Amino acid sequence: MSASEGKASVIGVFGRSAADYEQVGVEFFTPMGRALVERAGVGEGARVLDVGCGRGHVLLPAAEAAGPSGTAVGIDLAEEMVALTASAAAHLPWVTVSVGDAAAPDFPDGSFDTVLAGLVIFFLPSPEDALTAYRRVLRPGGRLAFSTFGAQDPVFESVVKTLASFAPPAEGERPLDRFRDPASITGLLAGWSGVEITEHVIESRFSDRSVFWEWLWSHGIRALLEQIPGSRLDEARDAAFAVLPEAPFSLHTTLRVTTATARA
């Protein structure tokens, strides 16, 4: 799959999941967004750019932190995400949401005090080029903060492995694999200063297995589910349920937050 085909595939998956994204009664991305904004140190009056803003799990807490004297700009290539997030932020006049590429934000040099990227950088065809773009749109001394996944809950990993057995074999390296090792992340930020990586454990609670199944369809795992032949989806669901504990249950996900400062 070419880079352009890969990008189109990601846009399509998140466009189709937009209506349900973080809307099924399970908190997953919302506390992750709050953790990212807190680590970024967004303050009153800050000019903030959130790339790949999705349904606003980073943008909205950033807007709250920046306040009416600041600006919070969200961009995303999934038009469905943009429309829903713009509606959710309509009561905040200092927030704007528009269609834009997280890999190449189209803003003048030095436009922002902070650039935020919540669980998006591993979807980009060239994270190195994206980081260069973020440094360009930041003022000297501006702050970058992005999140990636650390350790997944063993139950979740078992579910994904089970579901993958019903889909065609994956080809090549997964983009996520580049961000498993903190040393690899640090290596990408050679042109930045003050690089810090922190980890935050997020608990997500599920009232029953049907909610868990609905939740899987509401975010990026949808890409895997859509590869499973329709005739085998029920079988795949039952196999996934077989590795889940009795409801209610919780999953614990380690969020890794990386912060860095743009050199003058």
Could you give the topology of this structure?
Elements: H1 3-17, H2 29-40, E1 47-51, H3 59-66, E2 71-76, H4 79-88, E3 95-99, E4 112-118, H5 127-137, E5 138-149, H6 154-164, H7 182-188, E6 192-206, H8 209-216, H9 222-225, H10 233-242, E7 249-262
Parallel strand pairs: 1-2, 1-4, 2-3, 4-5
Antiparallel strand pairs: 5-7, 6-7
Helix pairs in contact: 6-10
Q: What percentage of residues falls in helices of 4 or more residues?
A: 25-40%
Order of SSEs: HHEHEHEEHEHHEHHHE
How much of the polypeptide forms β-strand, as a percent range? 15-25%
Rg measurement, Å: 18 Å
What is the CATH architecture assignment? Answer: 3-Layer(aba) Sandwich
Shape: globular
Question: At the fourth CATH level, what is the homologous superfamily?
Answer: Vaccinia Virus protein VP39
| Record field, number of beta strands | 7
Based on secondary structure, the structural category is alpha/beta
- Quick check: average pLDDT? 95
Q: What is the total domain count?
A: 1
CATH topology: Rossmann fold
How do the strands of the widest beta sheet line up side by side? 3-2-1-4-5-7-6
Count of alpha and pi helical runs? 10
Largest sheet: 7 strands, mixed
- Extract low-pLDDT stretches: none
